[in-house]
Amino acid sequence: MRTLFVFLLAVHSMVIPVSIAAQHAENVFSYKLGLFEITLLSESQGQGNKNILIDATPEMLRKYAPEGSFPNATNAFFVKTPDTNILVDAGFGRNLFTNLQAIGITPEQVDVVLLTHMHGDHIGGMLRDGKPSFPHAEVYLAQPEHDYWLTNSRGEQAREVIAAYKNKLHLFQPLEAGEKATPLLAGIQGIAAYGHTPGHTAFLVESDNEKLLIWGDLTHAMAIQMPYPQVAVTYDVTPGDAIAYRKKLLEYTLKNKIPVAGMHIAFPGIGTIAKDPASEGYVFTPASYPK
Ligand SMILES: [Zn+2]
Ligand 1 centre and the CA of 89: distance in Å? Predict the structure, then answer.
């Protein structure tokens, strides 16, 4: 059943009414961003294990992950513009199609897929029986991400996706945060967030002066990596770069008051960033929604 409600999104201590939001189903959360509608499509909600964290001290864990685990999720996102249906990552492909159906979208109606990177929890929904799940979609992928998987010994799934969409593939060079250039698509820009993978990309979405940074896998353990962005995870291909880009994009979103969304942020997967007075790091405030 579809319910409409107004929700408030806290932005840096100001509480501003964002818009009318619609929560369509258990795994789905939507809100208006200017003329666009943003929807979280949750593939799974659960707990991450502290063993994936690199260089988390016992003090950090005691304070922020006392049970040895932290809230985690796997998400994709959907951006509906007045003329384009854009999917951002394809999750595992578990709940993806049911979630899309819940917002009235069939796979044939997806015009564009933006890929943050090519790990299995982001491209799992791209193929069904070896064929494109989204037969009409143009696929946008960062050139360095494409190049990395072409020669990687564990890149079989990525190469299958690249081959299946080869006539629909748009390779691009992500910008550094704050850099100005012609948008990738109207209201969409690809921003370098390297380190988790060599071409890992965040997508900056903008409509009517409202912005959202969909940052992919910039974090995997919000509870720890917000107060301590210097903690990397074992899944990072180049942990040092992942840390540097995490710090850079957190400062960028803080300075520019840009709400954020992430593929491993617990439901509703979207919120705002502020400085954490208790640490050198940040605090994340999830967007509020009726429980
Ligand atoms: Zn991931």
Answer: 10
What is the whole-number distance in angstroms between the Cα of residue 121 and the centre of ligand 1? Answer: 5
Query: pLDDT digits over 16-29, tens only?
Result: 333 334 454 579 99
Question: Which amino acid, one-letter code, is at 217?
Answer: D
Describe the crossing of helices 156-164 and 143-150 by its angle, rounded to 10 degrees: 120
- And the tokens for 286? 């999830």
Say if 12 falls within a structural domain: no
Give the total number of structural domains in the chain. 1
Q: Which domain holds residue 126?
A: 26-286
Q: How much distance in Å is there from the Cα of 217 to the middle of ligand 1?
A: 5
CATH number at residue 60: 3.60.15.10
The answer to whether position 84 is within a domain reads yes
Tell whether omega for the bond before 239 is within 30 degrees of 0, i.e. cis: no
Ligand 1 centroid, distance to 76 Cα (angstroms)? 10
6 C-alpha to center of ligand 1: Å? 30
Contact between 156 and 51 under an 8 Å Cβ cutoff? The reply is no
CA of 73 to the centre of ligand 1 (A): 9
pLDDT in tens, 86-113: 999 999 999 999 999 999 999 999 999 9
Q: For residue 185, which of 84, 284, 268, 92 has the smallest C-alpha distance?
A: 84
| CA dihedral angle for residue 270, residue 115, residue 225, residue 196, rounded to 10 degrees | 180
